[in-house]
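Known limitations

Files may contain more than one protein. Parsers should not assume a single record per file. Below, a two-record file is shown to illustrate correct handling: read the sequence, read the token line, then continue until end of file.
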Amino acid sequence: MPTALITGATAGIGAAFARRLAADGFSLVLVARDHARLADTAAELRKRYGVEAEALPADLSADEGLEAVEERLRAGVDLLVNNAGFGNRGAFLDVPVADELRMLRVHCEAVLRLTRAALPYMISKGRGGVINVASVAAFFTRGTYSSSKAWVVNFSQSAAAEIAGSGVRVMALCPGFVRTEFHERAHMDTSGIPGFLWLPAERVVDEAMRDLARGLRVSVPSARYKAIVGLGRLVPGNLAGRVSTRLGRR
């Protein structure tokens, strides 16, 4: 039975990955900061799908948490989903530097370290995959958040190129607006976002798994967001920056 490790596994896209992979017969290693919620999520998945679901509480902004997850990955998993992430409310100069640095640690350092810890085992087996959850924001200019997600896309493409031919795939997943707790946790007002721009987390996950199987290195779920990204590459940078204030966070 294959094993998947998912960070940020108790809500939103991470929880949708957990349900999909459990339904597909994966054993799960679930990573999140909230011990109680993590244990409840693991128990629910075990009961509903009859799979093994290990709870691994860890704060990925701290060395202790990163080291614990790295150790588990080195023991071997078949799929890693680097999903943990968050947003900061406010413009760059309004956000405390400590909060921005914490974001970089979770979005960039954790993705790098956990991917690096997972790949050797996968390559030794000649199979496996890593999905690094980025955002449509990666293709626009919108502060530290979009900058960190742009790094995730570039890193994932670079890692995929380096291990080409190994049987292991690395892919950046770039969703747009998804119905999750993400915006609520960041205290963001989403009332002005048109309904057609919202995607269900389950659809994002289904398209991600399909694109990983196809060998894509960057996955942008839904035709509407593919069009937005395509247009964003054609418009001037200053205009894209203004547009990204509306479309810049998953």
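...continuing to the second record:
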Amino acid sequence: MFLSKIKRKALKLADGLELVDFSFGLPYTYVLVKGSEGKALGVAMTLPEEIQRYSNSVEEPSLKAFIERVDSLNAIERTLGLAAINAVSQYHIDLSSAKWIDAVELLDNDIKTVAIIGNMPPIVKALEDKGYNLYVFERNPRLWDRDTLSDALEYWLLPEADAVIASATCLVNGTLDMLNNRAKNARVFLLTGPTGQLLPNFLNGTCVTHIAAMKVVDIEKALLGLKLGSFKGFEKGNRKYVVEVP
């Protein structure tokens, strides 16, 4: 499982970092860490449809305790674990070679068919306007529209895609392994959204070619937005970036 592999890498990088704050909530679960170079905030989107009557097995919260449970079958533990790994990643990430662009700007005219994993209306609209043939997959029925396909069809249709733009929530629901297996023909595989704050080298050996995420540049503003349950409030403290996976 992919999450088990990045867990081992993240645990090594967590040495010397202190857990400052955390919260499991909507719209994002967050973990705040501090080290000698300052603070870093990591988030993971909370998926209400994945949450059942779970109880968290962490009795003494710590950064490493959260990371250890990122590959748990318990969705609460998995979400907190990914937020913790993202916090560690954001503390260590080097964005000197990052592109400060929107995700859709990566696609060129040679790409004809794009698979979108997770119905993301702004991205769908932008790609429609550019004339791409789209497959839009979504697991949550509440987010379906007349052009949305069930995620059950990903296994069948992904091999046809020249490019894949996947919501980084595929890390939370554990489907990246399957996407990696079925999207072998994609020349571009972009992991997008705040949940994709991973270090790029964590994705070595996968078909992911780029990550489009958000760097929290104003931690206090972003935290206030998260505590108030506001997407827009959180995003006001961030800056979008795109990095290549080496």
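Parsers that stop after the first record will miss the second one. For reference, the second record is described as follows. The chain is about 30% helix and 25% strand.
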